[in-house]
Design goal:
Radius of gyration: 17 Å
GO molecular function: hydrolase activity
CATH superfamily: Carbon-nitrogen hydrolase
Order of helices and strands: EHEHHEEEEEHEHEEEEEEHH
Structural class: alpha/beta
CATH topology: Nitrilase/N-carbamoyl-D-aminoacid amidohydrolase
Number of domains: 1
Protein name: Carbon-nitrogen hydrolase
InterPro entries: C-N_Hydrolase, C-N_Hydrolase_sf
Distance between the termini: 31 Å
Strand content: 25-35%
Largest sheet: 6 strands, mixed
CATH class: Alpha Beta
Helix content: 25-40%
Strand order of the largest sheet: 5-4-3-2-1-14
Organism: Methanolobus profundi
Shape: globular
CATH architecture: 4-Layer Sandwich
Keywords: Hydrolase
Length: 263
C-alpha cells in the first residue's frame, strides 16, 4: 500500500455563514492540494458551526449546497474530502437533524456517518445515528474510520472501526478551550491502542458560547506526532506510510493478543 498525503484544514468557522465558510474552506483546500495532499479533512460542521438559532435554514439534505460544492472541488482536484454538516432529514411529517459526517472521493459521496454520541446541548437538536461502520473508498485501496468530536472520548468507537478494517482513523471536531491537553492525549491514545494512523482536525476561533484552540494533529500508527497545528487558521500536511502500520502490528501484536472471549 503506497504512502498517502493527508491534510487538516484548521478553520475559524463563521457562525451560520455558509457562504463565507465555503469560500474559506476552498481557499485553504487549494493550499493543501498545491502541497500534494490527496485526503483533506475539515472540522466538524465546518460550513455553519453549531447554528442552532437558524438550524432550519442552515441545515441541508445529502444533496444540498455544501455537499454539491464539495463534490465539485473533489472532482476537479481528484481528491478525498472528509467533513460534517448539519443534515435535515424529512420523513413524512417528521423532521430530524443530524450531525452528518461525509466522505467524498473524486466528486462522489462514497460514505456518510451520523454522529452516534451527541454532546450535551447537541441532544436538544440532533438525533443520534445508529451505525458505526468504516467507509471504503472506491478508487483507492483505503478504508476510512470516521468519528466526530466527543466520540474521541469513547475508545470503543475507534476500536470497532479498527477491527472492521480501517486503514486511517479520522476525527473531525469542535473541541473547545481549555481542553487542549485532553484532546492531544486522546488523539495519540486512539492511535497507539489501535495501531492506526490518526488525523484529528479541530477548529479555531470563537463561537457564540466558547472559543476553540485548534491543535489539529496527525499521528502515525506508533503514536508519534508527525505534524501539529497551533491556535491559528492553518493547513497542516503530512505523508502517512500505511506499510508502517503492518510493521508495528507485527512488532507488537495487540490485535492477535486480544481476549475477545473476555471483552
Amino acid at each position: 500500500m503506497n504512502p498517502i498525503k493527508v491534510a487538516c484544514i484548521q478553520m475559524d468557522i463563521s457562525h451560520c455563514d455558509k457562504e463565507a465558510n465555503l469560500l474559506q474552506a476552498f481557499r485553504m483546500a487549494e493550499t493543501a492540494v498545491s502541497e500534494g495532499a490527496d485526503i483533506l479533512v475539515f472540522p466538524e460542521v465546518f460550513s455553519t458551526g453549531f447554528c442552532y438559532d437558524h438550524i432550519e435554514s442552515c441545515a441541508e439534505s445529502e444533496n444540498g449546497k455544501a455537499i454539491q460544492e464539495m463534490c465539485a472541488f473533489s472532482r476537479d482536484h481528484e481528491c478525498v474530502l472528509i467533513f460534517s454538516i448539519i443534515e435535515k432529514q424529512v420523513v413524512e411529517n417528521d423532521i430530524n437533524y443530524y450531525n452528518l459526517g461525509v466522505c467524498i472521493e473524486d466528486g462522489e459521496v462514497v460514505g456518510t456517518y451520523r454522529k452516534t454520541h451527541p454532546f450535551k446541548k447537541e441532544k436538544q437538536y440532533f438525533s443520534s445515528g445508529d451505525e458505526i461502520e468504516p467507509i471504503r473508498l472506491k478508487n483507492r485501496q483505503l478504508t476510512i474510520g470516521m468519528q466526530i468530536c466527543y466520540e474521541l472520548r469513547f475508545p470503543e468507537v475507534a476500536r470497532k472501526l479498527a477491527l472492521e478494517g480501517s486503514d486511517l482513523l479520522v476525527t473531525i471536531a469542535e473541541f473547545p478551550t481549555p481542553r487542549g491537553h485532553i484532546w492531544k492525549s486522546l488523539a495519540i491514545a486512539r492511535a497507539i491502542e489501535n495501531q492506526i494512523p490518526h488525523v484529528a482536525c479541530n477548529r479555531v476561533g470563537k463561537g457564540p458560547d466558547q472559543s476553540f484552540f485548534g491543535g489539529s494533529i496527525i499521528v502515525d500508527a506508533l503514536g508519534e506526532v508527525k505534524e501539529e497545528a497551533d491556535d491559528s487558521g492553518s493547513v497542516i500536511v503530512q505523508n502517512i506510510d500505511l506499510e508502517r502500520t503492518m510493521e508495528i502490528r507485527s512488532m507488537i501484536p495487540v490485535f492477535e493478543d486480544r481476549r475477545s472471549d473476555l471483552y
